[in-house]
Amino acid sequence: MKFIHTSDWHLGHQLYNYDRSEEFAEMLEQIINIVADEKADALLVSGDVFHSSVPSLSAQRMFADAVMSLRRRCPDTAVIITAGNHDSASRHEIFAEPWRELGVTMIGHIGSGDIDEILDRLIIRLPKGFVAAVPYCNERMMPDGLFEALSQRITELNNDRLPSVLMAHTAVSGCDATGHKEDGRNVGGIDAIDAERLAADFDYVALGHIHRPQVINNTDGRLRYSGTPLAVSFDEEYEHSVTVVSLATHGAEPEVHTVSVTQPRPLVTLPVGAPRPLEEVLSIFKRYPDSLPSYIRLNVLVDSFLPPDATNKARIIADQKQCRFCIINQIRSDSSGVSGQIPLTVEEFRNLEPVEIVSRYAESTGINFSDDMRTLFDEVLQSLNT
Ligand SMILES: [Mn+2]
Question: How far apart are CA 324 and CA 93, in angstroms?
Fold first, then answer.
């Protein structure tokens, strides 16, 4: 069985209020081309399809169009898509039935029945293998020993020694969470699951949630994060790709390679290396190529405070160029005696999404703003807007 492993598309993500629809459309086209070129038996998307639990109509439409275009081009490729912590589980499930008719399996939640019902729901039998598709699940709701039970059930069904794959959207012990604000033990409010427990008897574990592509150590290459195909944060300074996996039979070592995804508008931090004082950084920015579509973050070394016209100066430079200026990241030259967050300028504040303002406020008062709270806030905001 050959499949494409990807996750964390974050469709609908806006970067400092810039619309990224064109980039996402290009990204989806690249992924469809890779599936077709590789003649994959399946496409596995391990969660965080959308950036928000209430995605815009255009993001939803883009998703549906891309999946349909993939199905037309590769009618023999099964498509399995689980929900991540950013997705709305119920939104994933609403059209699960019609999607199934079209050869697309959408799994939003693990279900509420007994363990047998859950196993039946999550295990998908493909012509050349088995996939246990586990969406993001709050740990309190996760039945004990779910992964082991899935693995065991597949063993019972697997008379032909077909390969078995687990999809999961979670942090795993020992993962490298570079590019996330939190450390690897608790990213996005999710506690890391023990890698060995997760691996059980699966031939490959297609992980989502962590944005940096990586293999988990000491798992013989069986546990992997595909990472984001399109960067969603300036701190994701690594190559973006999807993972192509071939499994000959159950028990065989996976054959893996990655195919890089071109970033239509890369996220660039200036200067490269250590932050510099404002005037120096602005002159570096002036020399930045005019015709390079990209997003720009400036790392500025600040003594006391940033001059109020700094952001405006940066905007004026960007006006002459194809790049989109996003933010000045203030870094204090003398951090002694200064604690907590640097106050935002009015301009920066205007550019923040409401949820970011709330999460900053929560964190400043010592509250851990979890993904559940984020989802709840999104829903409240949405109901106020309609
Ligand atoms: Mn994600």
Answer: 36
Say how many Å lie between the CA of residue 9 and the centre of ligand 1: 7
Place of tokens 């279900």: 111
> Ligand 1 centroid vs 50 CA: distance in angstroms?
9
CA of 171 to the centre of ligand 1 (A): 11
Distance 101 CA to ligand 1 centre (A): 28
In angstroms, what is the span from residue 2 Cα to ligand 1's centroid? 24
| Structure confidence by residue, pLDDT tens digits, 141-188 | 889 899 999 999 999 999 999 999 999 999 998 898 887 876 666 677
375 C-alpha to ligand 1 centroid (Å): 14
Cα angle value 19/24/28 (rounded, 5°): 165
- Residues 134, 83: contact at Cβ < 8 Å? no
Q: Are 169 and 207 spatial neighbours (Cβ–Cβ below 8 Å)?
A: yes
**Quick one: angle between helices 310-319 and 278-286, nearest 10?**
10
Q: Are 137 and 198 in contact (CB under 8 A)?
A: no
pTM of the model: 0.86
Query: CATH classification of 2-260 is 3.40.50.300, yes or no?
Result: no
For residue 87, the CA-to-ligand 1 centroid distance in Å is: 9
C-beta neighbour count of 257 within 10 angstroms: 10
Give the pLDDT confidence of 219-256 residue by residue, as tens digits.
888 999 999 999 999 999 999 999 999 999 999 999 99
